[in-house]
Amino acid sequence: YMLAPSLLIVGASLVVAQRSGIELSINFIIKVLLANLVIWGVVIYFIRSAYAKTLHNSIAKGVMNSEGVVVYNRDAIAILLAKVDSGSVSEKIYALKLLENGRYANIVQLLKNQLFCDELPLKQYSFERLNDLGALDAPLLQQMISEEPNEELREMAAIVLCRINPANLQHYIDEIPSLSPSLRKGLVLLLLKQKGFREFYTGATAIQQWLSSPDPAERELALEIISECDHIDFTTTIVTLLEDEDPSVKRNAYVAACKLKKQEILPVMLEKLQRREDKYLAIQGLFQYGERLFEDLKHLPPEVIDRCTPELIKIASKLKGPAVTGFLLTLLKENH
After folding, report:
1. pTM of this prediction?
2. Which of 21, 61, 118, 254 is deepest in the core (most CB within 10 A)?
3. Which of 255, 248, 247 is nearest to 285 (CA)?
């Protein structure tokens, strides 16, 4: 990025020399080029030194934002490693981010070491990064399950262990009803992705039981799972829950129905738009459908859409995309 300024300076030097009456020979031009390169090299050296010094000071004080910053300097890496060893929790996380951005060679091992420290936020950050990097192995996860005092982290470790080694799901199949909601959700999602009949049947059965449970919390849990599981058709059940007596379950049913983006549920949602008591929930749900809503509307009879035009315009005003723009332009043409 310093090349363009250096070429401009060389060119300006030659123009000034020509206008000053100096004869521009090949030897003279070469000397100008060499002189400019030397001067520019010195300038770059001092700029780089000042930048490195400022970088080191900022890292040492912990006042620099790690987003988008890449550190390759050895001194800076040494300072960051010292922060990981003896800094506060926020400083350790900040240092780990910078080291990862700088492609530090031992970052995976460094993150693994933090899994068994005393600071929960640091353990959670390290676990999430290792999970994203695909660096969590079965022995490490089993150690966390047996030694980690925090229940949430133990559950996260169990879910990841079952994901990388589905055979471990067998240990939890019979215990699903007694597990915490977050662990049940993670395990059932994994069960529904398995090819084995027993695993799939266990997951699907659990969802059906929760959907028909008298406990609103279990019905909500089932809806959360369904909204993330679009390869199984629960449309009929979701439509039923749109009339649930519990307000929270009803609201989540609208969201889950639209998150799945299934065309067969659109006529039901458009009908809800015309009912005063359901209009707000239907609009909030259709926001989750996103731009694809206006693609799928093309497959419905025009008279169905015409009855909901004001509400659809309201939804379109909060969304973006070619399909949304096309829908609004079509309405404008029809009105003129």
Report:
1. 0.65
2. 254
3. 255
